[in-house]
Amino acid sequence: MHQILEQPGKLTSATVADSRGISRAAVSRGISQLIRRGYVVQSYESTDRRVRPLSLTASGEQLEIDCYKVLQSATKLMSDVALNDSGSPLTMGQLTQMLAAVTARGAADTQQK
Protein backbone atom coordinates (compact mmCIF):
# COMPACT_ATOMS: atom_id res chain seq x y z
CA MET A 1 0.00 0.00 0.00
CA HIS A 2 2.89 2.34 0.70
CA GLN A 3 4.10 2.01 -2.86
CA ILE A 4 0.62 2.85 -4.18
CA LEU A 5 0.41 5.85 -1.84
CA GLU A 6 3.76 7.13 -3.10
CA GLN A 7 2.77 6.79 -6.77
CA PRO A 8 -1.03 7.08 -7.04
CA GLY A 9 -2.44 6.18 -10.44
CA LYS A 10 0.96 5.17 -11.81
CA LEU A 11 1.27 1.58 -10.61
CA THR A 12 -0.53 -1.53 -11.76
CA SER A 13 -0.59 -4.87 -9.99
CA ALA A 14 1.97 -6.07 -12.57
CA THR A 15 4.43 -3.26 -11.78
CA VAL A 16 4.01 -3.87 -8.04
CA ALA A 17 4.69 -7.58 -8.56
CA ASP A 18 7.73 -6.95 -10.73
CA SER A 19 9.23 -4.39 -8.35
CA ARG A 20 8.77 -6.68 -5.33
CA GLY A 21 9.78 -9.93 -6.98
CA ILE A 22 6.43 -11.51 -6.16
CA SER A 23 4.25 -13.46 -8.55
CA ARG A 24 1.65 -11.43 -10.38
CA ALA A 25 -1.05 -13.86 -9.26
CA ALA A 26 -0.16 -13.34 -5.58
CA VAL A 27 -0.16 -9.55 -5.94
CA SER A 28 -3.43 -9.66 -7.85
CA ARG A 29 -5.07 -11.66 -5.04
CA GLY A 30 -3.80 -9.17 -2.46
CA ILE A 31 -4.96 -6.19 -4.51
CA SER A 32 -8.38 -7.81 -4.95
CA GLN A 33 -8.74 -8.12 -1.17
CA LEU A 34 -7.74 -4.48 -0.69
CA ILE A 35 -10.31 -3.45 -3.32
CA ARG A 36 -13.06 -5.50 -1.63
CA ARG A 37 -12.22 -3.89 1.71
CA GLY A 38 -12.39 -0.43 0.17
CA TYR A 39 -8.71 0.52 0.55
CA VAL A 40 -7.70 0.52 -3.13
CA VAL A 41 -9.41 1.45 -6.39
CA GLN A 42 -8.46 0.54 -9.95
CA SER A 43 -9.10 2.91 -12.81
CA TYR A 44 -8.96 2.14 -16.51
CA GLU A 45 -6.68 3.73 -19.07
CA SER A 46 -8.76 5.09 -21.90
CA THR A 47 -6.32 3.80 -24.52
CA ASP A 48 -5.78 0.29 -23.12
CA ARG A 49 -8.45 -1.20 -20.87
CA ARG A 50 -6.04 -3.95 -19.77
CA VAL A 51 -3.97 -1.35 -17.90
CA ARG A 52 -5.58 -0.63 -14.53
CA PRO A 53 -3.63 1.88 -12.42
CA LEU A 54 -4.04 1.64 -8.65
CA SER A 55 -4.82 4.37 -6.13
CA LEU A 56 -5.65 4.34 -2.44
CA THR A 57 -9.05 5.43 -1.22
CA ALA A 58 -9.30 7.84 1.72
CA SER A 59 -9.65 4.87 4.08
CA GLY A 60 -6.67 3.20 2.41
CA GLU A 61 -4.57 6.32 2.95
CA GLN A 62 -5.64 6.44 6.60
CA LEU A 63 -4.78 2.75 7.06
CA GLU A 64 -1.33 3.36 5.57
CA ILE A 65 -0.78 6.31 7.92
CA ASP A 66 -1.95 4.26 10.92
CA CYS A 67 0.31 1.34 9.97
CA TYR A 68 3.26 3.68 9.62
CA LYS A 69 2.60 5.16 13.07
CA VAL A 70 2.37 1.68 14.62
CA LEU A 71 5.61 0.68 12.92
CA GLN A 72 7.35 3.80 14.22
CA SER A 73 6.03 3.16 17.72
CA ALA A 74 7.09 -0.50 17.61
CA THR A 75 10.55 0.44 16.37
CA LYS A 76 10.99 2.93 19.20
CA LEU A 77 9.62 0.51 21.79
CA MET A 78 11.87 -2.29 20.58
CA SER A 79 14.92 -0.03 20.61
CA ASP A 80 14.12 0.93 24.22
CA VAL A 81 13.91 -2.67 25.45
CA ALA A 82 16.90 -3.53 27.61
CA LEU A 83 18.42 -6.88 26.76
CA ASN A 84 20.32 -8.90 29.34
CA ASP A 85 23.34 -9.80 27.21
CA SER A 86 24.54 -6.70 25.41
CA GLY A 87 26.04 -7.48 22.06
CA SER A 88 24.89 -11.10 21.97
CA PRO A 89 22.39 -12.44 19.45
CA LEU A 90 18.81 -12.14 20.59
CA THR A 91 17.35 -15.25 22.13
CA MET A 92 13.90 -16.53 21.27
CA GLY A 93 12.73 -15.51 24.74
CA GLN A 94 13.96 -11.94 24.28
CA LEU A 95 12.27 -11.68 20.90
CA THR A 96 9.07 -13.05 22.42
CA GLN A 97 9.23 -10.46 25.21
CA MET A 98 9.74 -7.66 22.70
CA LEU A 99 6.85 -8.87 20.54
CA ALA A 100 4.58 -9.14 23.59
CA ALA A 101 5.48 -5.59 24.63
CA VAL A 102 4.76 -4.23 21.15
CA THR A 103 1.49 -6.17 20.91
CA ALA A 104 0.32 -4.98 24.32
CA ARG A 105 1.17 -1.39 23.45
CA GLY A 106 -0.64 -1.65 20.12
CA ALA A 107 -3.73 -3.14 21.79
CA ALA A 108 -3.76 -0.37 24.40
CA ASP A 109 -3.43 2.30 21.71
CA THR A 110 -6.28 0.73 19.72
CA GLN A 111 -8.59 0.62 22.75
CA GLN A 112 -7.93 4.29 23.52
CA LYS A 113 -9.16 5.36 20.05
Summarize the structure.
With 113 residues, the protein is mainly alpha-helical. Helix content is 62%, strand content 5%. Helix 2 packs across helix 3 (24-36) and helix 4 (58-80) packs across helix 5 (92-112).
Question: Secondary-structure blueprint of this entry?
Answer:
Elements: H1 2-6, H2 13-20, H3 24-36, E1 40-42, E2 54-56, H4 58-80, H5 92-112
Helix pairs in contact: 2-3, 4-5
Order of helices and strands: HHHEEHH
Mean pLDDT: 78
Helical content class: 55-70%
> Over the alpha carbons, how many angstroms does the gyration radius reach?
19 Å
Low-confidence stretches: none
Main pleated sheet: 2 strands, antiparallel
Helix count, per DSSP? 5
Structural class: mainly alpha
| Strand order in space, largest sheet | 1-2
Alpha carbon gap, first and last residue: 23 Å
Total DSSP E strands: 2
Give the strand content: 5-15%
Shape: elongated
Protein described:
- There is one protein chain.
- 62% of the residues lie in helices and 5% in strands.
- It is built from 5 helices and 2 strands.
- Strands 1-2 form a two-stranded antiparallel sheet.
- The mean pLDDT is 78.
